[in-house]
Amino acid sequence: MTTVAAPSAGTALDRVDGPEKVTGRARYAYENVPADLAYAVVVQATVSRGEVRAVDADSVLQLPGMIATIWHENAPRLAPVEDAELTVLQSPRVAYRGQVVAVVVAETLESATEAARLLRVDYRPEPHDVELRPDHPGMYRPDHVNPNYATDSELGDPDTALAFASVVVDATYTTPAQHHNPIEPHATVALWDADGLTLYDATQSTSGVRATIAPLFALPPESVRVISPYVGGGFGGKGAPHAQVVLAALAAKQVGRPVKLAATRRQMFAVTGYRTPTVQRVRLGADEDGKLSAIVHEAFEQTATIKEFAEQTTVVTRMMYAAPHRRTSHRLVRLDVPVPTWMRAPGETPGMFALESAMDELAVACGIDPVELRVRNEPTIDPERGLPFSSRNLVACLRGGAERFGWAGRDPEPGVRRRGRQLIGTGVASSTYPVYRMPSQASARAEPGGGFTVRIAAADIGTGARTVLTQIAADALRVPPAQVRMEVGDSALPRASVAGGSSGTASWGTAVLRACEGLMDALHRRAGDVPPGGLEASADTAEELRSQRPLSRHAYGAQFAEVGVDLDTGEVRVLRLLGAFAAGRIINPKTARSQLIGGMTMGLSMALLEESVMDLEFGDYLNRDLAQYHVAACADVRDVDAFWIEEEDPDLNPMGSKGIGEIGIVGTAAAIANAVYHATGIRVRDLPIRLDRLIGGGI
Amino acid sequence: MRPFAYERATDVRSAVAACVAGTADGAGAVYLGGGTNLVDLMRLGVVSPGVLVDITRLPFDEIEETAGGGLLIGAGVRNSDLAAHPLVRRRYPMLAQSVVAGASGQIRNMATVGGNLLQRTRCSYFQDVSKPCNKRVPGSGCPARKGDHRNLAVIGQSEACVATHPSDMAVPLAALGAVVHIAGPGGSRQVPMPGFHRLPGDAPERDTVLEPGDLVTAVEVPPLPFATRSRYRKVRDRASFAFAVVSVAAALDLEDGMVRDCRIALGGVAHIPWRAERAESALRGSPATEAAFAQAAAEELAGTTPLPHNAFKVPLARNVVVRTLLDLVEAP
Amino acid sequence: MNGEGNSGPVFADPITADILLSVNGDERPITVDTRETLLDTLREHLDLIGAKKGCDHGQCGACTVLVDGRRVKSCLTLTVTVDDREITTVEGLAVDGALHPMQAAFVERDAFQCGYCTPGQLCSAVAMVREVADGWPSAVTADVSGPAALDDDEIRERMSGNLCRCGAYVNIVAAIKQVGS
């Protein structure tokens, strides 16, 4: 087969799974129905710390249709593993309010739900500690921060540099806890049979779930199969398995029947992860021209008592701007709270809100245009790692974005532009995200009847991975995309890395490309002849990745916001949002734009709306639904657009691509906060920017 | 959700009888209209009736003109039909505006006028059965006072309860002095708004003056010719599909730059849709100026007793009252 | 609201009803628990998985279906109440295997990412275009007594009952505008 097709990469191919999704045929995890299925519903702790003394399992078993009540005294034993979030129902300890203390299983969803409501659980409560304060006596220095960065960094003498700087910004910023809230709740259907355990799971990594779950049940990985062709959004929340996967498997084991289990929306606020709240102090020292001499960025965050997750909030500051004297740090406190986890651009998202707000404050203090200020502090090499950049086009994004946005001639004076009853302002912030690539495997197969099948246990959580990998494969096989059948979302396929860290296209694309190249070689050796059983080649990128030379690899962007703030009410509306990005080669402009504006939309939502409110008296997140935890609705999102500059970077991967799933959210909140300052003269350093912060601030 | 019997009523008498019988049974019976709040609360375990009496097939889905030029709105009229009705839009713009400012298109297609008046508070503690709440479990306490109360009441609240009424529609209805028609076990009666809703006092479990078995059959909106110059302004955190932080319904009758008459009610500030009678009397006969509006708003809000995290609602309400009245002055 | 009791747990038997449900033109005889929502009936008993469960409290719109042509939240609709209604789900939008113009526009405009809110967005959009044509006002209609246009502001306001966490709103608005005009 030597058909020559026009390259598909670079073209705006419609999503290959579009028809399934718009017709309702796409089957998500909870929608799988093995025979003899039973329904499981979880029961959550109503104390925030203490012990379960007793569970009145017998009473609810009298309910019609009840199959089992499972709690720590009767639950199947799990093998001990380090991750206490997953060793569910193994001990009487309650580490946070909302932790799962029992599971009920019944013939119908209605009966299981009612039994869960009625189940009486007796606790011995203990006083809790759930309040994040930077001066908390329990603050400690974690060994490292996510995923494996040094906790602290220091270069030069930042204290002295700050003392002698002409201009100093010293400000504290806070970001609240935020919940991912994918519209598909976390769900698992678990099925045990002679081959082992099958899980239909809503996950960003079928290979990862298999690797994590198998040891819990003392199974070899090959005895666990995780199937997840469609995932209704993840944003990091489905990156690593949470309690519900284990609970479903455990319940199915206990009752000897397939079981389906989904977290309810309210339960998701306790059991499926969230972004830690942060308190961040940023100090910038500069000369009168805005040239930075010192950057100090300190973050204070929380984690759970049962598991450490240390978000890398200030790591981004290590590479963003040039300055001879610098320090970053992370301090963590273990509280009686749910377990935090990755949420879209963990680290960069809260960290860049603080840094980019502070940069705006510095621009104001120096009387320098904020675009110009950033350009002046552009480093020539990675300031802390000392490595060259593989490519760095932040300045091009700032300049190109400014031009397209109409930034030139902006009057920096705050609080002076009116349109009707609205104060108008504009703001800018930089974006960045690291280029990660992880080892993966893939196979490519020429089918005897024509066409190709390419397999990899990748996850398309809405990113367009299935489509983009199809394009990469089609080009490598030199056929139109329609001749490639892409199979993803199944741990039985060649092992792949998580859909996280914006690494999917780079990691999986490399594996797919190498497998297809291998197949083309094999076909070439056979002069194009496909044997009756088909012809297959596979690839593993572990070796290739090890040989990658050390460079500082990041994507960059600049975001521009225009806001209107109602003079009477303080309501903030984002009138325009424009992102300019430099992210290597864009493989599918249609899905790429969706990813970028999707991230920006989530950033807008974070800036204005999102806050999980800790109930200090009871120790849980209080606003546990989508009427109280507001995410942006259609009416909040007006003119949001993104474009990218051409970027050739040969030191990335064979596709020349950088990740685009997360960079869109980085910097958005700062751009909006900076625009709000420009509109009103009020500097909001605490997210979200709700009207009470502005009414109270005296617009 | 607790199992419940489902009965579909075909006329008012049988509906009331079914509800009374269900209640007498000890199971607890409730009327089911659009279900947008009731089914939600049943799923939360806040309400666990043993019998649901479906009243959506009762002949309550008409909007009729009354003799004096008002409207009689059936309790079963869906919110979207109310807002789309030509007479509502022409005669009472603030009523149509309030309805479309509420919830979402899907919910407005389901929710009924009667049910809208009977919405329960959105206070987080009320909705969480694992925590105390005097409205849900009388005498259990009110954690909102010390806890989260950003969205709760600033006026008319009690030690026992600081909840707000979540309805948008009820705000202009209170301003208009709408009359709630009720059929009950003892016969029919009519209760004018805002008297239909109760302040919490020491019995916050009772939102309204309804007695067991009472069924709202209609809402009568009296004629008010100057309501053609009326407006509903809703302030909310999210641009749409969010409950009011504060809202104002206002109608203005102007003559030669003077306020001849006016109607003002506030939402999001109290346990009831708050009729701003002090502001109204302050304004009648005064000039239609920003200073007079500000003075009237200040008089109304002098009685507020905000909590630490919702004090912002007082200046917010003042601003919105003033701005809404100014907008009405400027309206063509 | 009367009927609220706090008399402790009541262990009652489920109550069922035999009804005939009309879905996408098919009459489906079914026994339902009175507690069952239309959403759960569709998904758990009729294998019509297009309507999605996102919040189960009427707050996300993923469960949107049409009842007698009007968009409603199937998660707040008790199945037992709609035995005499005509229900249309996303599976019923396509005609003779051809995508409904709204479905085609969503694909063309990339008006979704994960696809989970999409069936609800589609049902909502199809009904919403009709609501505008029928002259229903919205919260952004300047003159509530006059007609409304299908412009961007109107589409955004009227589609706000359907949350999309992937942030495809800009493309959703573009797709609807394309179909509606």
From TrEMBL, chain A:
Domain Aldehyde oxidase/xanthine dehydrogenase a/b hammerhead: 23-127
PANTHER family linked: ALDEHYDE OXIDASE 1-RELATED, XANTHINE DEHYDROGENASE
Entry keyword Oxidoreductase: yes
GO MF, one example: oxidoreductase activity
InterPro entries reported for this sequence: Ald_Oxase/Xan_DH_a/b (IPR000674), Ald_Oxase/Xan_DH_a/b_sf (IPR036856), Ald_Oxase/xanthine_DH-like (IPR016208), AldOxase/xan_DH_MoCoBD1 (IPR008274), AldOxase/xan_DH_MoCoBD2 (IPR046867), AldOxase/xan_DH_Mopterin-bd_sf (IPR037165)
Pfam families: Ald_Xan_dh_C, MoCoBD_1, MoCoBD_2
Protein name per the record: Xanthine dehydrogenase
The entry's keywords: Molybdenum, Oxidoreductase
TrEMBL record, chain B:
Entry superkingdom: Bacteria
The FAD-binding PCMH-type domain, residue ranges: 1-226
Family annotation (PROSITE patterns): FAD_PCMH
UniProt keyword list: Oxidoreductase
Segments traversing the membrane: none
GO MF entries: FAD binding; oxidoreductase activity
Protein name: Oxidoreductase
TrEMBL record, chain C:
Domain of life (superkingdom): Bacteria
Pfam hit, one: Fer2_2
Alphabetical keyword list: 2Fe-2S, Iron, Iron-sulfur, Metal-binding, Oxidoreductase
Keyword Iron-sulfur recorded: yes
Pathway assigned to this chain's UniProt record: Alkaloid degradation; nicotine degradation
Domain 2Fe-2S ferredoxin-type: from-to ranges: 17-93
Family annotation (CDD domains): fer2
GO molecular function terms listed in the Swiss-Prot or TrEMBL record: 2 iron, 2 sulfur cluster binding; metal ion binding; oxidoreductase activity, acting on the aldehyde or oxo group of donors
Database matches in Gene3D superfamilies: 3.10.20.30, [2Fe-2S]-binding domain
InterPro entries given in the database record: 2Fe-2S-bd (IPR002888), 2Fe-2S-bd_dom_sf (IPR036884), 2Fe-2S_ferredoxin-like_sf (IPR036010), 2Fe-2S_ferredoxin-type (IPR001041), 2Fe2S_fd_BS (IPR006058), Aldehyde_Oxdr_Iron-Sulfur (IPR052914), Beta-grasp_dom_sf (IPR012675)
Protein name: 2Fe-2S ferredoxin-type domain-containing protein
